[in-house]
Amino acid sequence: MSKDYYKILGVEKTASDADIKVAFRKLAHQHHPDKNGGDDKKFKEVNEAYQTLSDKNKRAQYDQFGSDGPQFGGGGGNPFGQGGFGGFSWEDIMRQAQQGGGAQFDMGDIDLGDLFGAAFGFGGRRVRKGRNVEVEIRMTFKESVRGFTKEVNVPDYQDGVQKGMKKVKVTIPAGVDDGQQLRMDGAGETITDGRAGNLFILVRVEKHPTIYKEGNNLFMDLSVSLRDALLGKKIKIETLDGTETIEIPECMSVGHVIKLKGKGVSQGFMRSGDFLVMTHIKMPKKLSKDAQKHIEDIAKELDVWK
Fold this sequence. Notes:
By secondary structure, the chain is an alpha+beta fold. It is built from 10 helices and 13 strands.
């Protein structure tokens, strides 16, 4: 039977990534089996729901097929996948958490050390952890596509007291999306004889007037006159990197796509995306009688449009 992951986490289907993360944190603390009154079955169920809804691709497939879809193998078994999470077994994760209370495994942007070490004090040792700090960074569409590094002002918390502001050098990777949250480990509150909190960066991206992004590809819609679609023409367009000359081919087909290879998002060793110009033929709203006659003559001459 398909599981309702949204119901398990207690969120609506329209919940944001941040809402899902908050719900997971709360329920994971509540049901952790090493906590008094914890429930191992519910804890694993909550993890299973979070692993799906915190991943864009898995969430989209779940919304379409439910937990019985092919991505989830019927929805049963280990919530961390076969063999454990990220190649580690559940026992590996628990063992790491017990050795010093500072698990270094990462579940999306959930630090297992937050759940295991500081919260439950494994082995009688309770490790203090500084609070997480959140900031918002606004950027242009081009900055989000190409990535950049800058210094940002961040609240400077030390041992529970705000000492003012501090500058933190933040690197925004290429290809981030509006609403995405990034994490910098150890850039939050500092704690004496403890572990520093993390810095969470909420990305806000301005819309571009003509260009949009899907995955690693950039897109632009371009209206082409009927004349140019028939006769062809070289035109200039503005991309994120300057002016490019593209060619409208003679007798261009409807829905023709012009590709500027490698001009999309570039992410390190991964293949760069492309810049795709989506053409749309601009048809006249009305034809005069003379225009209709000329078109009929052309149609007869070319033996088309029958």
